[in-house]
Amino acid sequence: MDQELYEQWLDFTKRHLPKETKSVFELACGSGALSVRLAQEGYKVTGLDISEEMLTWASKKARQAGYQLDFTAGDMRELSGLGKFDAVTCYSDSLCYLENLDELQATFDGVFEILNEGGTFIFDVHSTYQVDEVFPNYSYHENAEDFAFLWDSFGGEVPHSIVHELSFFIQGSDGKFTRKDEVHEERTYPIDDYLARLATAGFKEAMVCADFTDEAPSEESARWFFVCKK
């Protein structure tokens, strides 16, 4: 992923976390790129991801940067008992991988439970415009001497959903290429659906902005950001 995106997520987080914030729980932390950046800013960081492989990379990345961070394997739909935190983040449209509104509600409920009173929950999702108008029939191909990457997207079966088909071709030391295929299915919802589910979870405030700015979304915004208060 473009490293500049992590800098943008970091900047957005710093702008919207209160100065007294000390502990941050990062949902879907992946390889730990943002976790390490948050630690470098002085936050006590805990990361959760469903992939053991990604957490191995995250721990290695943290150690190389000189940090011993807490990384936990787990499901964002089941957060009960994981402790209490001043802030929770969930970026890179990770919530869009949940299958339906019930799973989204379970995640919001869990986040509310692990947040300290007055805590902040920040997340981003694809906009309906991005999923309905931009992604369908999107195709990106990259070729290099030792690597090739194919990305094709198609509309999904349910409203505001998309299927990404990814293929990686990586050259080994013997000169032969190995192919790896991935299918990513994502789904988003209108802003009002997210706000309703946040309210049901108990959040008392929710600000919505777009595309790493603090401006309200437009009809053609690609990514929505939510800043919520317990």
TrEMBL record:
The lineage of its organism: Bacteria, Bacillati, Bacillota, Bacilli, Lactobacillales. CDD domains: AdoMet_MTases (cd02440). One of its GO terms (molecular function) is methyltransferase activity. GO terms for biological process: methylation. This is Methyltransferase. InterPro entries: Methyltransf_25, SAM-dependent_MTases_sf. PANTHER family: TRANS-ACONITATE 2-METHYLTRANSFERASE, TRANS-ACONITATE 2-METHYLTRANSFERASE-RELATED. The keyword Transferase applies. Gene3D superfamilies: S-adenosyl-L-methionine-dependent methyltransferases, Vaccinia Virus protein VP39. Keywords: Methyltransferase, Transferase. It comes from the Bacteria. Residues 24-119 form the Methyltransferase domain.
